[in-house]
Amino acid sequence: MNAAAAAMLLLAALAARGAGAQAQGEDNWEIPDMRAALSEAWSSNDYAAPQSLVHAASVGGGLAAGAPPGAAPASDAELCGTPNVADAGCPALLDPGFGWWTGGPDRRNAFLMSVLVRDNYPMVHNLGADGDDTPEKRALWQCLLRSKWLALGATSVEFYDSLLNTLVVVHAGADVFVNVRGTWTQAHRDNNMEWRLGGRKKLWGGGVRYHTGWGKSAEDAYQAIKDIVIRRLNVTDGACTMWLSGHSRGGGVALLSAAFADGRDGGAAPCRVGGVWTFGSVKPYDAAFVKAYNGKLGAKTWNWWNQID
User: Which pTM value belongs to this model?
Assistant: First the structure.
């Protein structure tokens, strides 16, 4: 299935569900009826429909439910429950035995990346975490997300927070899946407003220009990705493939980060770029960037838009 056909199928399915949700006025999921979307994407009866996407957890100061005051902080397992596929709400997406990951634009791959995009927003109707504006909320959200993706077959799940970015990095075998959160904080909004194109920068041997603010965010994100891959994941020989994703400003940062890895670092990058998925992405570049990027990574990049984002 080519990218255009996959896009039409996915958008048609989402549009139909969106119209139904609007008419009923009851479903506050961003993608109504996630279970039906999952079933349709996989067309598999191997897994029973999950009863809940939320793990058993307590937000009582980072303590496990029922723990006495003053007890040591709970471990991930105590706080979030033992990871399992049913609680995660999806089949084992990252298990190579399923042969699901092709790196192409098919619906399963698009669904996987959209789930990762979604999970990077800590909202009740996503993972059950209500924001990340306090240390306790952030710890709970990270714990829920980590527990879910470990249940889906990940080797490890890493996080990075700065004024400019919130990243989730999922490591699964030789694959590293990176998601960049979209606009979430006032610092992000301020960064968005640094809208001028910067001076020419060398990528793939030529001069290109891109958005000053998102360029700063991409430099921060890409450095964080390199640190995580090399220092936390202990991948030092480039023997990994990186798949980047993002929504809105996060999509623009993902595109720029891919360009830095492939067009600037090349063989020195910690992972080769396998693909880029963006959803409702901003466009952070000039025409020279577009031409250079499409010549090198265009066949590995899928930008998804709809009319309600």
Answer: 0.74
